[in-house]
Amino acid sequence: MYLKEIILENFKSFGNRIRIPFLPGFTAITGPNGSGKSNIVDAILFVLGVRSPKMMRAGRLTDLIYKGNREANYCKVSLVFDNSSHEIPIESDEIVLTRKIKLAPLPDNPQNYYSYFYINGKSASLNEFIDLLSSANISPNSIVQQGDVTAIVEMGDVQRRKIIDEIAGIADFDKEIEKAQKEREEVERNMEYIEIILGEIKRQIRQLKKDRDEAIRYKKLLDELEKKKAMLSYKKKLEIEREIREVQKQIEHYENERKRYEEEIKKLKEEYKEKQIKFQEIEDKLTEMGGEELLEIKNKIDFFKEESIKAKEKINYYRKEIAEKKGEIEELESIKKKVEKELNGYERKLKSISREIEKIDKEIEKKEKEIRRKREEIEKSDEKSIEISREIAKIKKEIENIQNDLHSLKLNKDRVEQQKEMLAVQINELQEEKKSFEFEEKEIKWEISQIKKEEKEIDRKRKELEKALFDNKKEEATINEKLRELEKETIFLQRELAKLRAKEDASSLSPATREILRLRDEGIIKGIHGTIAELGKTEEEYQKALEVAAGRRIEAIVVEDDEVAAKCIEHLKKNGYGRATFLPLNKLMSGKPRGKALLVVRDESAIGFAIDLIKFDSRYKDAFWYVFGDTIVVRSLNDARRLMGGVRLVTLDGELIEPSGAITGGSLPERSLFSLSDAKRITEINERLREISYEQENLAKKLIEIKDNLGKIEEELHGLPTIADIEKVEKLEIRKREIENKLKNIGKELEKKEKEYEKIISELNVIDEKIKEKESKLQELEEIRKRKEEELYRIATKEALKELEAIKEEIEKLKERKISLEGEKRALSKEYEIVNGKKKEIEDKLLLAKNKLEEIDEKLGIEEKNLEESVAELKAYEEIERKLLSKTKGLTKERDDLLRQIYEIEQKIDSLSTKIETSIDLIAKAKARMPTLESALAELINIEYEFKEDEIPSIEEIKKRIDEIEKELQSLQPVNMRALEEYERQEERKKKFEEDLNKLKEQRKNLIKLEEEIKKKKKDTFYRVFNEINKNFQKIYKELAGGEGELILEKPDNPFEGGLMIKVRPEGKKALHLNALSGGEKSIASLAFIFALQAYEPSPFYVLDEVDMFLDERNAEKVAKIIAQKAKDTQFIVVSLRRITLKHAHHIYGVTISNGLSTIIGNVNLEEVEEIVEIK
After folding, report:
1. pTM attached to this predicted model
2. From start to end of 687-814, where are the E strands?
3. How far is CA 626 from the centre of its chain?
4. 219-239 pLDDT, tens per residue?
5. Would you identify the CATH topology of the domain 389-455+722-794?
6. Which residue, 5, 13, 560, 1016, could crosslink 80 as a Cys pair with Cβ 3.0–4.6 Å?
7. Nearest Cα to 600, choosing from 626, 635, 624?
């Protein structure tokens, strides 16, 4: 593959469309300066995708457009490649890559343009260009421009190493390392996030565990309570059975008991009144004897006890602080000694290095005197030598002056950089100190505001608690009264219910229906609405007709859905109650009257459809349709006979005529199923009893809650502090003012340091500019000096030159040693300054710690004095309290005894009242009806638990246990039953997050390993590329210069921290670094380096732009020969003005310019070229 042709159109100086054909081998392009030779190189770079116009010697891309007599608005370049070897992956033997830019001026941007790319005439993109060219290893690196050789010489060692980095693809490794580091940082952030969440989850689990244990205990107790209640029901069942047998005997017994209890209550009430009067008399006496004073004394005792505790706590805290500060001072003193020892070591080393530098300076001075003497000998050889020597001496003097200036500038730079680093540290410390004080200030302000609120809060809280105490006591009395009213209402309703149940038992409802209604009333099965009879309501005149029309379906039970129906059927089957019909609302079919029915209902003797004569909830419509359908109510049997046939009729007297013609009639028992029936009243009573039970339960819970509240309120009232901590506020205010002053000072200091830092940055920039200027001038003078010395040496004697060279070499070694020592001295000075700064920082911390120790010691003395005063006051008030209590001791005991007796009487009265109410209730139930007991017995038959009679304890023991369970349940309330589920959920979350954390830890470990592997691979790849290029360099340099050359890494163990040096030994000379070579030798070394790079990644063609510019004839010929040799395998296009180079070229093109327009002279011979251009 090779570059076959370049087609230029309006590109730079090529204003016309020009085709430049190329052949394989070595093609030279020559022409006068400014003729446009290098513009051909720029054209190749333009197509190869260079983005920077500066690389094509243009300010902007539009500057590439021809600006001659006929100014164009576009430029276009095409590179035609021979692709017969198919190195570019396109099925074509010839590839044409074209790039075009076209001006598209805008009002605000006259230089606006559009850029176009084409591959074989088809539109493409720059990336597609680069991808295609990369596949054939063609890139801008295949072109060596003017100045690239010089750039290799002038660039720093690190820049030179970065060329190897680029070839080795180190940037890709760095991206992979950066990616791995970012992923690791992301993983670490996720780990930190998960650890925070885990901490919170564990905290929640610890909290939930208590709630969960309580919930488990609560559930167990509920289960036990249910079982105990079932046991109690079973025991009641046995009791009811016995009661049925003995009820008559009990009535008389309960009557007698009631009378006896009433007599006892009467006596107890008289005794209660006497005790109350006596209690109030004692209370009044106690108040007269100093009750208020005693309360005040107790408050004072509580206050001084609290003050003593506070003082003790502060004393312990300050003693601990003193011990910590003493330890801190000891540690700082120890560190200070170590730092001082370290500083002494630095001082010794610096003195030693200074002495050695001084010794080297003397030795250099001695050697330079010897050089001057030798040069004087050389200068005396003839006049020309003398003149050159004078010039050299003058240049050296100038070089020496610049070197001195550079040395001063670099020392000054080191000094300023040290100041910059110290300032950066100081600014950072001030910022941290500022943040610390700002945080403390914020905390103090918050604490002061809280303490200031405390006084108002205490007063507000006391009033609030006293009001709450009064309200709760009032509510307690209200609830007790309400509970008594509900108990009376319950007894009344139970009596009425018993009568209705007895009446119901005599009705025709089946056992199955009664059982289902019981399940509904007791709330055992939800979703039972009731029988058709209960859910409907009609006028009295239609009752008989509708009852007959409904038939047995009147007992059909309406339920919410088929699932409820299934539960009810299962219950009936399990307990043997018989069968019942259920109407599930979700499955019933709606219906409409038949045609015959619609005709009959219009007759004047027809009252209407049976379903229309009933009032019911609209959602039960389908259920009532199931029962009555399109049955029509008519007035008499005669009317029915006239209308019968194909329609169901019922008369007001109860005769039923079926559609088939069957007639049912006769006498009926008296029943009223569709009035405000007893069934309806039973439902209402049961509903009210459930409401009362629910209300009693809520009131009981409320009562317990109120009693708990009362206890808490009284405890809180007693625990309220008497005065706010005024002294603490004063201390905090003082500390706040101190912090404000410190923040003000820190702010000023920080502003000052930041300004100093900005000034130093500006100073460093100025110094860098001066150093750059001086180094440029120095390099220029060194080049002149070397040329003059070479001229002098050519006319000097060989013996004198050898001696002079030997001395110069010794001086060079001494200077290298001196530079090394000065670098070491600068580094040590920098370390000395850092350690000295650390020493000052430690001294400041020591002073601060000692001052803090004195401050804490002073606070300790104050608190010890406060403790002493508080203890003395406490003892005094305790003595006063003891004396007051001794006076009232007898009356207090008498009052307490009376209070206990009053409470016992209240308990007895309550107990007797309960017994009386129980007796009345039992008498009422016994007298009301015996069937009530039988019904109650029937209700107790279906107990879910099975018990053996001899294993059941007494009712009292069961009740006692129920009472204990209920109390324990109350003590556990409120219970977080969700804690059971939540605990398991949080445990699952904990497990999941722990798994995630372990995965992340493993992922982090793998990423660290991956990062290390990439770093190793990066290093190995670099060494592999470097070693290969180094081999190429050694071989090529030998071919070019005949000597030896090698590439040396500044830091072989860690190449990325150092640079790349070129060290060569020209034939017949000693080994030297690149900077120590003559101009021509530098060019040869640089070219060898460039050729070595190209040899590592061979390209199908190379373009070299005047690379032989600074070579002497002998070296230029060597370079030309090597190019001619390499051109056998690779195409070379070389721009040159050197005869020797053109001589070895296989093809020569000439470039001329006329009126700003470049033209090409085809493949010409050397003689023709000499006619158009001056050949060197």
Report:
1. 0.39
2. none
3. 64
4. 788 777 777 777 777 777 676
5. Helix Hairpins (1.10.287)
6. 5
7. 635
